[in-house]
Amino acid sequence: MDAPIRTYKHMIPLEEQAPERLVRRSKLISLDEAGSIIASKTSVSLAGSHSADAAMALIRAAIRAGAKNMTMIPPVTTSIAADLPIAAGMLKKLYLSYVGFEYLGLAPAFRKAAAEGTLDIVEADEPFIILGTQAAAGGRPFAPVQYLYEGLSIPELNPELKKVVDPFSGREVYAIPPLKSEVFIMHAQVADEYGNAQSWGGTGQERDKAKAADLVIIQADEIVGPEVITKDPTKTTIPGLWVDHVVHVPYGAHPTFSSNNYAVDEAHLKLYLQMMRDGAGDEYIATYVKEPEDHMDYLDRVGGLRQMSKLRRMLTNT
Amino acid sequence: MDAPIRTYKHMIPLEEQAPERLVRRSKLISLDEAGSIIASKTSVSLAGSHSADAAMALIRAAIRAGAKNMTMIPPVTTSIAADLPIAAGMLKKLYLSYVGFEYLGLAPAFRKAAAEGTLDIVEADEPFIILGTQAAAGGRPFAPVQYLYEGLSIPELNPELKKVVDPFSGREVYAIPPLKSEVFIMHAQVADEYGNAQSWGGTGQERDKAKAADLVIIQADEIVGPEVITKDPTKTTIPGLWVDHVVHVPYGAHPTFSSNNYAVDEAHLKLYLQMMRDGAGDEYIATYVKEPEDHMDYLDRVGGLRQMSKLRRMLTNT
Amino acid sequence: MAEIATPGHDRYSTAEFIAILIARYCGGDRELWGSGGANQLVSLAASRLAQLTVAPNLWLFSGGAGVYNSKFDTLPIGTWDPRAGHGAECKILLSDIVDNGTKGRYEGDRIGRGGSGYGGLQIDKYGNVNMIGIGGPYPKLKVRGPGTVGVLWLGSGPNNLYLEHHNKRTLVEKVDYRSGNGWMDGGDSRARTLDGRDGPQFVWTPICVCDFTEDQHRMRLVSVHPGHTVEEVVANTGFELVIPDNVPTTTPPTEFELHVLRTQVDRGGLLKKRRMTVG
Amino acid sequence: MAEIATPGHDRYSTAEFIAILIARYCGGDRELWGSGGANQLVSLAASRLAQLTVAPNLWLFSGGAGVYNSKFDTLPIGTWDPRAGHGAECKILLSDIVDNGTKGRYEGDRIGRGGSGYGGLQIDKYGNVNMIGIGGPYPKLKVRGPGTVGVLWLGSGPNNLYLEHHNKRTLVEKVDYRSGNGWMDGGDSRARTLDGRDGPQFVWTPICVCDFTEDQHRMRLVSVHPGHTVEEVVANTGFELVIPDNVPTTTPPTEFELHVLRTQVDRGGLLKKRRMTVG
Questions:
Q1: pLDDT of res. C40
Q2: pLDDT at residue B167 tops 90
Q3: B52, B31, B82, B47: which is closest to B262 by C-alpha?
Q4: How far apart are CA B308 and CA B251, in angstroms?
Q5: How far apart are CA C270 and CA D196, in angstroms?
Q6: How many Cβ atoms sit within 10 Å of the Cβ of residue C183?
Q7: Three-point CA angle D194, D200, D204, nearest 5°
Q8: Does pLDDT of C84 surpass 90?
Q9: What is the full DSSP assignment across D123-138?
């Protein structure tokens, strides 16, 4: 056979193609690398639920890396995972469903930015975010809904919500636009270095958000070997082939819950709220986001191993 | 307080409302009852994958109960679960994605009905069934898709596929109609009497099909106690509150696989195909569907415990 | 605005009382969908209490964790608290909840609705709810709300409203913005717009219980809690409530009810600490 | 129509050979999406073989069971065979696959496409596929096909075609019905219609390998399997194949390749028994 033909791989026996060592590529990168990648994007989506399972380490890394003027597609309910980025000037635009601290109070940075008009708020809600994400996950043009927005204020306040005529009934219904993001970041309890991840809590928002994103970065409390993952494939909530990068950050969801791993640090959330309300937001960001040399330094600043062990105990104890 | 007010339940203390014994209602019914319920409907949807996890016991019960002229929304790929109902005259209309026996050959009853024009075939496919079911699961008016049906024959052959103008791009895209069913029937490996079910295999079609149906009936190889279900809530693929009735039928998926429980009975599938091709379809239906006194009698006719144990072994052995 | 301090409050908190009222409301044999929303601790406690006493077929949902029928005896701090998942029977996806909501039926109407409660910045006489904000013109809001989340599911069918603060700022003639459809503009406006879906049934507040009139669907006083008066209710409501001739006192919590609540549902005493106000 | 019996077939079966060809094609460091469709046993075996030898980052998908990276050494009877799940790393939903397909990208183009293969009742010179039926007018078909399933995913991006029977009834000038878009009507017709998505790359048949010309995207002969000739290929193809001056013989399977295939992928010898025909 002559040379050009050899360029057809099916003509080359496997043993001739076989590499010296057959090595599966690891997707592990450093927290700082992840932060720079996120900061280089214009839109980010998040998972988690309220003050649980937020990708806080990645968010702090992105702020440290100088993330600015980004659009955020948050989980349908969230607290510090949206409020801190707003305080740090990371966000220009937010799809709003719920941002608040519930029994601890309202979200200070969010309310300040809203009052000062420094944040572009898209008046959204649970179905807008979930169905919009679902449409983007499948590259579908929009998500039609009926008997939902009729009579509500959102159609007047949210210009991204349009109308379309249902070709089957002839009735006018509403159309939610696809919500894609350039990067999706999430917290998982365990992941392997190939991207297979187990999120033990949450509400499954992460699956469609991963499919709706150009790039997926996972932070995991623990990196485990393949034998842990293959023990039960149904436990893998995010298949590795959906994932670009994995970052190892023990207690990376702090100060929020990591489902079945450690509890929310309520005292730290109260400290955050107090400092934000007292106009000491920059000091908080300096102390807990910008100055820490690395994630372990951050953990030391919030109480170190003693505090982390207490948070683990709080969860497993009930 | 005067009497009428007492009709407000919030005025009546719990101890006065409390029943003698606080009993949670069981959803268990007999296979014959289930068959009659299915036979009383006009449309049925199925889950499973090819010759795996088909709700065969319920299908045989429905035929026995005289099910006729029904519309079937099958799993995207299936074999005897669609071919047998066609042979028995249970179906008037079929949403077609794939009906065949793969390496064992084509589907005899399906091909015969197609040739004789006795079956109304809707030319569908994987996305038509999955996205149509998804729309029905949410009571949404339709599912828009683009860059999918352009250039294909299905838009010409399937009048249920329409066009709609995407209000965001102004482009014309296709609209898949919602595919609801009056009853959804499925096979599960285990279920509790309250309807919480674990399907160990399959491709997750059962979740949206359950939500898209007015009534849900589950057949389970085993009925387990709550302690098995609560051991790991993430194993419950169908939440009990989606379910109306549960039927206990060991080896109920025979002659198809029950994932991780027992193997397909290839010899029986070959017998089925042979009899159908030899014009002995009525004899097959008499012997294996209509004459058996109950499910156990059916199992005896197909080899009884000896054969079932072999099928279990075949699966766990590999 | 005053912390509620009234006769009986040495014996129970208003939050405990409302939880017990909602639990009573859930009584019966029917399959019910209980609780839901993320921060509805009172409703969550009520559903668990009902399940343990009078509603064996109630499905207790912890929305934030996405699980059904948790077996907790210590109330979690939110339905998103992973501890809300203790002993659960199944876990669903948020998209399943969205499917229920857009379908306007909970599991195909197999299931009634029990202790699901919605609150808001503002609620008007037809039970419409506002979580967006107060004042305007939008987006220049005097008070920026936290967002609508799932309050629009009020439109999906017959739910209930729940208020932790009973005052004229919250109970207004007309909401500034509408995040959730109550009976809309009254009469048959809701039935015409939302495919005949039923509207809100009851309103639980720190000082009274209300429902809605049969035809106009205007909010109507049903009973006033012990230690409070019709006059107090009227004085703290920003619109004209329908007041029947006979307004009884809400049946107070019994020892049995408080005992079960405190020993099998809220061992941590979260509801004791819950802050509710009037005025 | 003759069972293939040619020199070398005492040493290997055509199915084994095609599996090895597809495995070679998958060689490289890139993340690949391998196999997929329900009854693509040859493609499944090829993907597993490639993963074990030359494609460490290939994601082996068993479509019917919905699992990735099974560790089987005995080929299951179908990708829906629960045994295909042995040692898998994750399980996905069919709706995830539909999302990939409608998005027209496999995991956002992170992932290339390896041993995914589509066959059909008919395939034409532009690689369009028909699974609906032969003859007409519809629905009066001479041959009723089993249905389209996921053949339309051919339109989602650059895939490959795979044929178990090479004859004029299957390889036709123009398909009677189009279930899957190949290069459509050739030229830039596909790019214009499907948002620039790339079309089929290679065609694996029992007697040869084809690809498509760069401009017109017409099917072109690349290599002919040992024991077969260009003339035989032409005689059994229902349209005019593009024939280059130099058509080499497909490199036959090596002992190493057959050894790994038979000891680590297909211990049950399913591919040995697989029936393939020419003419």
A1: 80
A2: yes
A3: B52
A4: 7
A5: 59
A6: 24
A7: 160
A8: no
A9: EETT--EE-SEESSST
Nearest by Cα to D171 from D226, D215, D221, D136: D221
Identify the contact set of chain A against chain D, taking CB-CB distances under 8 A. Answer: 1-2, 5, 8-15, 17-19, 22-25, 137-140, 192, 194, 196, 207-208, 211, 213-215, 226, 229-230, 233-234, 236, 238-242, 244
Query: Is the CA virtual torsion C172, C177, C181, C184 positive or negative?
Result: positive
Structure ipTM: 0.95
**Angle, alpha carbons D178-D181-D182 (nearest 5°):** 115
What are the angstrom distances between the C-alpha of B137 and each of A138, A229, B129, D90?
17, 31, 12, 25
Which chain C residue has the Cα nearest residue A260?
C82
User: What pLDDT does D77 receive?
Assistant: 87
Q: Residue C86: what pLDDT?
A: 84
Amino acid at site B11: M
Q: What is the pLDDT of residue A3?
A: 37
Classified as helix, coil or strand, D113 is: strand
According to DSSP, residue C52 is labeled H
User: Does the pLDDT value for residue A317 go beyond 80?
Assistant: no
Helix (H) or strand (E) holding C50: helix C41-53
Per the prediction, chain B carries an average pLDDT of 95
Given phi > 0 = left and psi -120 to 50 = alpha, else beta, which region is A188? beta
Give the residue with greater pLDDT, C116 vs D102.
D102
A vs D, Cβ pairs < 8 A, gives: 138
Distance CA C35, CA D108 (A): 38
Read off the amino acid at residue B111: R
Task: Please give the pLDDT value at position C110.
Answer: 64
pLDDT for residue C108 is more than 70: no
- Phi, psi angle pair for C34, to nearest 5°: -110, 145
Type of residue numbered B159:
P
Q: For the CA atoms of chain B, what is the radius of gyration?
A: 22
Phi then psi for D14, rounded to 5 degrees? Answer: -60, -40
Which residues of chain A have a CB within 8 Å of the CB of C83? 315, 318
Q: A258 and A189 in contact (C-beta within 8 Å)?
A: yes
Dump pLDDT digits (tens) for A71-127. Answer: 999 999 999 999 999 999 999 999 999 999 988 999 999 999 999 999 999 999 999
What CA–CA distance (Å, rounded) separates C9 from C23? 19
